[in-house]
Amino acid sequence: MNTCDNQTPLAGKRILLGVTGGIAAYKSAELCRLLIQAGAELRVAMTDAALEFIRPLTFQALTGQPVASSLFQGEAGNAMEHIELARWAELILVAPATADFIARLVEGQGDNLLLATILASKAPLALAPAMNQQMWAAASTRDNLQRLRHRDVLIWGPEAGEQACGDQGLGRLREPSDLLEDVIDFFAPGPLEGRRVLITAGPTREAIDPVRFLSNRSSGKMGYALAQAAWRAGAEVLLVSGPTCLERPDGVERIDVISAEEMRRAVLEQLPGQDIFIACAAVADYRPRQPARDKIKKQSERLTLELERTPDILAEVAARPNRPFCVGFAAETQELEHYARDKLAGKKLDMIAANRVDGDDGAFEGDDNELAVFWDDGAIELPRQPKTRIARELIAIIADQFSRRRP
């Protein structure tokens, strides 16, 4: 993004800049200056090791704000400063992020102010690594970064070049001007800016009697990840959720339902004005025809239940005039593309995302997933990865196809 197009592209954005103890800490002052010049509201938090490389007075002069560096800054009159910073920040950027800091972050340590603030914050976290090229190449560092990426942490850099120790290779801190561009891109309007997205997630429960029900193994994790990704892409998101143990995603409105019929009523009631409908919920296909009014007693050796079809919510939405862009999900144990494309055509959908659920691969309860995405004249494979990341990729595909068909 060209910052010349807007004099203050980060106007009002609240950014906490974390500085750790590496020789590249001197570049953090330039990054600080550039972020403020771009309009950001900036606060700085330093580790004890960072104080050995650059003085807090530098950042205080640039930001006009006191620099946070100790969990026990009695003179500040606020022993809970890390909580205040955690709630205040819209983005936490650690630049430089040393190998030691990264390792401590992975382990969930919170024995300094910056680590404690990160633990206490819901704000997105970005790291700009800086270290010796051999430290960067070390297996432990690579493993730590992979674990952080699984937690949705953004990794910006490093770059290759000559290092302070005289080595050549990857490990240099990304240049402050490039980090500024990364921050601007992070806050840029998403591809679904101004759009309304309705998503269903989780299982449904179909009552057998007052204490028993028919359901499935869906955890709701994929649908919740999609809701969060759609919100981060700029959409106004409404999530209709079956019973799960998951917290409501940030920025997302949620309606809780239990049965397929309750989900159907909620979806149809909220449908007007929606631009995109993503049916990710694992809605029960059948329900007991006559649920017992009282608890069924364990008496006979066998019990026969008469089942009837539940409403096909996605098909009903897709058949409506002036319907939203419709995306379905298909969980299959065999012939994935065949059955997925059958549903795509049969229900007249715009897109369908299919995943294989044969065996104990954790597709339902696990944190990872893989998808094959199909539309009339195209398809794409999304390899196995965390559901949060696969959700971002799928939302990007949906946004692209939506813009092509409904500009």
Number of strands: 19
* Main sheet summary: 8 strands, mixed
If you average the pLDDT, what whole number results? 91
Class by helix and strand content? Answer: alpha/beta
| Helix content class | 25-40%
Short description:
Helix content is 32%, strand content 24%. The chain has 407 residues and is an alpha/beta fold.
Question: How do the strands and helices of this protein lay out in sequence?
Answer:
Blueprint: E1 14-19, H1 26-37, E2 41-46, H2 56-63, H3 81-88, E3 91-97, H4 99-106, H5 113-120, E4 125-129, H6 133-137, H7 139-150, E5 154-155, E6 159-162, E7 168-172, H8 176-187, E8 196-201, E9 206-209, E10 212-214, H9 221-232, E11 236-241, E12 253-256, H10 260-270, E13 276-279, E14 286-288, E15 307-309, H11 313-318, E16 325-332, H12 336-346, E17 351-356, E18 368-375, E19 378-386, H13 387-405
Parallel strand pairs: 1-2, 1-3, 3-4, 4-5, 8-11, 8-13, 11-12, 13-16, 16-17
Antiparallel strand pairs: 6-7, 9-10, 14-15, 17-18, 18-19
Describe the 3D structure.
- The protein has 407 residues and is α/β, with parallel strands linked by helices.
- Helix content is 32%, strand content 24%.
What keywords describe this structure?
alpha/beta; 13 helices; eight-stranded mixed β-sheet; Rossmann fold; 2 domains
